[in-house]
Amino acid sequence: MSAKQLWVLSLKAKVLENCELDNDGSEFQYVESFLLTDDSNELLTQTNITLGQMGLELDNKIKLVVYKSKEWSGGNDPIGSELLQEAAERAIATEELTFGPFTSCNFMNE
To answer: Which residues contact 43 (CB under 8 A, 6 or more apart)?
Structure first.
């Protein structure tokens, strides 16, 4: 068995009618999911299940990588980077699936 690593999936999710998120009318939401696991497929499986429970459907896997905090810090959005770091730390501490902040496609297009 290989050592557990923190995996992160950047994704685009379709908003369904039963979505429990506050929504600005966007058809899609962008988010990162995190899981400490020895198998990246476990992150995909748990993300799909949890998104479905939230009224979202995985539309596009943008990036699936081992999380390295230096690659996810700084940039144009220091607050977003801090929230991602908090989600990553929560995933490590709990060994459970966590999500970073959800961002609507309307916000992304502004």
So the answer is: 7, 9, 33, 34, 35, 37, 64, 97
- Closest CA relative to residue 45, chosen from 109, 106, 108, 97: 97
Largest CA distance in the chain: 45
Tokens of 68: 């390295």
- Mean pLDDT per 10-residue interval, the chain, length 110 residues: 90 93 86 96 98 97 89 58 90 97 72
User: Could you tell me which residues are beta bridge partners of residue 8?
Assistant: 34, 65
What CA–CA distances, in Å, run from 17 to 29, 42, 56, 58?
13, 26, 9, 14
pLDDT of residue 72: 63
Write out the two tokens for 107. Answer: 């916000």
